[in-house]
Design goal:
single chain, 387 residues, alpha+beta, Creatine Kinase, Chain A, domain 2, seven-stranded antiparallel sheet, 15 helices, 13 strands, 45% helix, 13% strand
């Protein structure tokens, strides 16, 4: 099976941001066909017409906004901001607000309506409860690469940074009204799907093509779009897609995710150009480090090598920003990359949400209010402590 790969300009950017539609009276996720109504107003109903940068997701309480092909992080953020304002205005006319987090703090997934797309109906039919409970929201970053020969080595190497992205973006401590004890419950919910989670470590593009052919022939999937790895090649766009991040509440935070993604792929691209063989971390180390990040967030100790040596993830993130700064300077995203250190100081969203809940006697409606305020003001609210 040959899978065409559409070459993209090196280190070009695309970002996808899944927004929650919230009932301003109850603070629950919107019920009914909220997304369909809003998108129809914006010219994107399922029965015809489309909006180039806003679309349905699995649930009717979610709208995904997407950028075009961008060159810089600043351009991508501005692109998203324009679409978000369109969605916000239409939502407010219906008594709805916008926010983004890996999970809604207390809405029961069973109350949510599935979007009227045959693709989603098939997903529910095939996966049943595993898909029905996917009341989760994330951020995806595409970075352009020029050839399929580069895509798989870059995907393999990027698995070493899964804990970095997951810990810093963790925004799903609560699930249906309960504190899970995790920084990212979303990542564990999503792993329930058989083709989601960590990517398989493959030897190259031909190995990827053979694997996809096996999955399609065995009727595990009908299209490669149904492989939802944390990091994956996207042949149609000609990108490596990082799907690791929990939903990020602000464009301010979207910018660090885009910058970190762009800088890492650019670094790995450069190493391949120099003839280097990119590192491929051991699968068991990647799995354990992902778990540690999902559990402990930025307070995790990650495994460095096969001897079992560990290091604080905080320190690893700090050092990574320093190492990537020269690349960020060339790409014009130095200030956005440095926001990684800012989030280390003020706390990722999971810490901020817990701080708000603790300050309000465990009332999770105040957490929803804080998340909507963060998005509206484009400013993370400082946590009492990053725990």
């Amino acid at each position: 099976m040959q899978i065409p790969f559409t070459s993209s300009p090196r280190s070009s950017l695309g970002v996808e941001w899944e927004l929650e539609l919230v009932d301003l009276e109850t603070r629950q996720l919107a019920r009914g066909r909220a997304a369909s109504e809003i998108l129809a107003e914006l010219g994107a109903p399922y029965d015809g017409g489309e909006h180039p940068k806003a679309k349905h997701e699995l649930l009717e309480s979610c709208i995904e906004v997407i950028t075009g092909v961008c060159t810089t992080v600043d351009e991508a953020v501005a692109d998203l901001a324009g679409t978000v304002e369109e969605v916000r205005a239409a939502a407010e006319r219906r008594g709805l607000g916008l926010m983004c987090s890996g999970t809604h703090p207390f809405t029961d997934w069973a109350t949510q309506e599935i979007s009227p797309n045959p693709r989603y109906a098939k997903l529910i039919e095939d996966m049943q409860w595993l898909a029905r409970r996917l009341q989760i929201f994330g951020v995806h970053v595409h970075v352009g690469v020029r050839s399929p020969e580069k895509a798989i080595p870059i995907v393999n190497a990027l698995t070493a940074y899964i804990p970095h992205f997951l810990a810093l973006s963790g925004s799903s401590p609560f699930w249906m009204g309960t504190d899970t004890g995790l920084s990212s419950a979303r990542s564990k919910v999503f792993e329930g799907l058989p083709t989601a989670g960590l990517p398989y470590q493959l030897s190259g593009w031909e190995d990827f093509e053979r694997f996809m052919e096996t999955l399609i022939s065995a009727q595990t999937i009908s299209t490669i779009r149904e492989v939802w790895w944390d990091v994956r090649p996207h042949p149609q766009f000609g990108t490596v897609e990082l799907r690791i991040c929990d939903g990020l509440p602000t464009l301010h935070e979207i910018s660090w995710a885009a910058a970190l993604s762009q800088c890492l792929v650019e670094m790995l691209n450069g190493q391949l150009d120099k003839g280097y063989t990119l590192p491929m971390p051991k699968g068991w180390t990647v799995r354990e480090n992902k778990w540690r990040a999902a559990r402990y967030g930025i307070e995790a100790e990650i495994i460095l090598d096969e001897t079992g040596r560990t290091a604080p993830l905080r320190d690893a993130l700090d050092e990574l920003v320093d190492d990537l700064t020269p690349i960020a300077e060339r790409l014009g995203c130095t200030s956005e990359l440095c926001r990684v250190k800012e989030i280390l100081e003020i706390g990722p969203s999971y810490a901020r949400q817990r701080a708000v809940a603790a300050a309000n006697g465990g009332d999770l409606t105040t957490v929803v209010d804080s998340l909507m305020a963060e998005m509206r003001n484009n400013a993370p609210i400082r946590a009492v402590a990053a725990t």
